[in-house]
Design goal:
alpha/beta, Rossmann fold, 7 strands
Length: 253
């Protein structure tokens, strides 16, 4: 009832101020602690358009208050040589609004870009906007993708938000679908992201339920991929919430 009342009030206020070119938007409507609660697509697209920004830049700069965060990740991956060779087929788990997808498509223009996304509204938007291939998602496998068919397999801000077991099941699948010489990219919250000041910020935050933020030791990730004939290329810290995640790059032998 309270949510309905807030919506009615917001609509009423927006009706009054619309002639002035003003719109009331609550910046904290999205609950990051609940991975089932997708970023609202209609308000996000409308606000990004109103500000003359891409969706990804709007989310970084306005919603997350971390301007350039997505581009910074892509730039660091470039330094590691991830985009040094042509990428014919890319795959992304949980692209959501497509803020990373947008940058990668612009940078290397894969001929085929597969996505596994649970939000139908955002998936439909990405298919319309970028002509990507949306495959059925079960939360643990990449069953729609052929073995050793992808040059680049990615997941950004996914494994920091779901439990350990689904994460490593996805890791095994990421290796399966990656071609020899291809790259596996993802970020997790490791021990490097959990110093005492950062932990104190998480304690003081409003996040107090769900899997987010989930943590996995870096040694687990490195051992897991080494066991599956993948070379550790490098890692770096990227902003998330009250702290950071560590982004890893592995190359399939």
């Amino acid at each position: 009832m309270r949510a309905q009342a807030r919506t009615m009030i917001k609509r009423a206020i927006n009706g009054i101020v619309a002639p002035l070119g003003i719109k009331v938007v609550r910046q904290h409507d999205h609950d990051w602690s609940d991975t089932r609660n997708f970023i609202p697509i209609d308000d996000t697209l409308a606000e990004a358009k109103r500000r003359g920004m891409s969706v990804g830049d709007y989310i970084d700069e306005v919603m997350n208050n971390i301007p350039g965060a997505t581009q910074s990740t892509i730039s660091e991956l470039q330094k590691l040589g991830v985009f040094a060779k042509p990428i014919a087929t890319a795959l992304e788990i949980g692209p959501g609004s497509g803020r990373y997808l947008e940058k990668i498509v612009s940078l290397c223009a894969p001929k085929r870009y597969e996505i596994y996304e649970t939000s139908k509204a955002w998936a439909d938007f990405l298919v319309r906007t970028y002509d990507v291939v949306h495959l059925p998602t079960d939360g643990r496998t990449l069953s729609g993708t052929e073995t050793a068919s992808c040059d680049l397999v990615q997941a950004y801000k996914v494994f920091s938000s779901i439990p350990f077991l689904p994460s490593i099941k996805y890791w095994a699948e990421m290796v399966r679908v990656t071609r020899p010489g291809g790259f596996v990219i993802f970020d997790i919250m490791t021990e490097a992201c959990l110093d005492v000041p950062t932990a104190e910020r998480w304690i003081a935050s409003s996040v107090d339920n769900g899997a987010y933020p989930a943590s996995i030791p870096s040694s687990v990730a490195k051992a897991f991929f080494a066991h599956r004939d993948c070379t550790f290329v490098g890692s770096f810290l990227t902003p998330m919430g009250e702290g950071h995640t560590e982004t890893f790059a592995f190359q399939r032998k």
